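worker-3 :: picked VOC family protein
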Amino acid sequence: MTSHSISLGAFNLEAQDPAALAGFWAAVTGATPSPGGESVYLPPAGPGGFAMFFQPLTAPRPAHQASHLDLTVPWGSRQAEVDRLVGLGAGYKWDVLDEYPHVQWTTLADPEGNLFCVAEHPPADRPEAER
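worker-3 :: tokens ->
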């Protein structure tokens, strides 16, 4: 049987202003942007991080966003992280707090309207009634 090793190389986004959007995401992740021509590469900020690549918008944005980032933070820190990201320029959209016992999340939009979520998962040793 063959063993496979696959990882995320980068999450790619088209942007009206690639440098500005990369600047927002650099503040979110703590990474340092690396511009190249009209595009900007944002490397992972550290082990376990993820890269992003921003390039000029080539067509109008679709009315429905088919994919988005789910970012995970430690249990109990979601609201503080959401507040930090809103302070950086993210737009608040909605919370999903009681629908699922294994996760709570807040959906935000970056300055160009791309949706992303900030999620927290309760510790596995936490009683079900407290989740």
